[in-house]
Amino acid sequence: MKRIFSTLLATLAIVMIAACSKSADAPAPAKTETSTQTAAAPQPTTAREGEGFIRIAQPVRTDAPGKIEVTEVFWYGCSHCFDFEPMLMAWANKLPEDVSFRHSPAMWNDLMVLHARAFYTAKAMGVLEKVHQPIFDAINLQKNRLDSAEAIETLFVDHAGVDPEAFKSTFGSFGVNAQVTQADARARAYGIAGTPELIINGKYRITARAAGGKAAMLDVADELIAKERAAMK
Predict the structure, then answer these.
(1) Residue 161: pLDDT over 90
(2) Main-chain dihedrals φ then ψ at residue 143, nearest 5 degrees
(3) H helix runs in 148-213, sequence order
(4) Strands 197-200 and 44-46
(5) Coil, strand, or helix at residue 52?
(6) d(C-alpha 41, C-alpha 163), whole Å
(7) What are the two backbone dihedrals, phi and then psi, of residue 232, each rounded to the nearest 5 degrees?
(8) Which is it for the CA torsion 149, 153, 155, 156, positive or negative?
(9) What is the pLDDT at residue 21?
(10) In angstroms, rounded to a whole number, what is the distance separating the alpha carbons of residues 103 and 30?
(11) pLDDT digit string (tens) for 24-43?
(12) The pTM is what?
C-alpha cells in the first residue's frame, strides 16, 4: 500500500511539472521546461552577446501606450513559476514609472484554463493580492490541484472572504470569459513554448533556457528595457 501511495504521488508530481512546457502540438501538456522549443520557434538572438532572448517574429500590440510593457506568461501549477515568483515580484516592484508589468496566464489544457479563470476572477473582484500567492501555495505546497470551480471558490472564501454567490457570478461572467480568451490569444501570438516566460514590449521572449537561468531572465529583461527606452527617445 505504501508503495502504491508513493507511486501515485510521484505520478501527480510529474503531471504538474510537465505542464510547465508546451509541446509543438498542444493543447495537451507535455515534456518538462527543459524540453526543446517548438519547430516553428525563432532561434535565440541576444541583448549583448548572442544569447538571452528570442525575437518575436510579428510584434504583439501592447496595452500600455507610452510605456515599456513587461508581461510574465505563467501558470499557477508550474513549479518553475512558483520558484520564480518571489524574485520576479521583488524586481517588478522596483521598476521605474515608464515600465508597466503584468501577469498573463498560459493555457494549453483545461486545468490551466480553469486557473486562468481564477486569476481573472480575482482581478475582477479586487482580491488578487489576497489570493495570488495562496493559489500558488495550494497547488505547489499543499498538493491541492484546485481542479474545480468549487475548490477555487473555497480558497477565495477562506483567504479573501468573498461572497460565494458573487464569486460564482463573476467566475462565469462575460468579462472573465473575454479576458481568458484574450490571454490565450496573446500567448499564442507571443509563441510561448513554456512557463515562465517574460515578454518585453511585445517584441522579445525571454526564457530560462535562452537566458541561462531564472535569475538571468531578469538581467536580460533589464537590458531589453533599456534598449526599448533608448528607441523611444
Answers:
(1) yes
(2) 60, 30
(3) 149-160, 164-171, 174-190, 208-211
(4) unpaired
(5) strand
(6) 44
(7) -80, -10
(8) positive
(9) 79
(10) 22
(11) 333 333 333 332 233 334 44
(12) 0.83
Rounded Cα distance between 193 and 109, Å, is 14
Confidence band (pLDDT; 50, 70, 90) for 5?
Answer: very low
Q: Per residue in 95-149, pLDDT tens? A: 999 999 999 999 999 999 999 999 999 999 999 999 999 999 999 999 999 999 9
User: How far is Cα 168 from Cα 109, in angstroms, rounded to an integer?
Assistant: 22
Name the H helices within 19-145.
79-92, 110-125, 128-140
Residues 206 and 219: their CA atoms lie apart, in Å, by: 10
Q: Where does 19-95 have alpha helices with state H?
A: 79-92
Q: What is the pLDDT of residues 190-199, one digit of tens each?
A: 999 999 999 9
Q: Among 231, 228, 183, which residue's Cα sits nearest to residue 70?
A: 228
Grid cell listed for 58? 510579428
CA distance 187 to 134: 24
DSSP reduced 3-state for 161: coil
CA dihedral 145, 150, 155, 157 (to 10 degrees): 180
Sheet containing strand 204-207, strands side by side: 44-46, 52-55, 204-207, 197-200, 68-74, 99-105
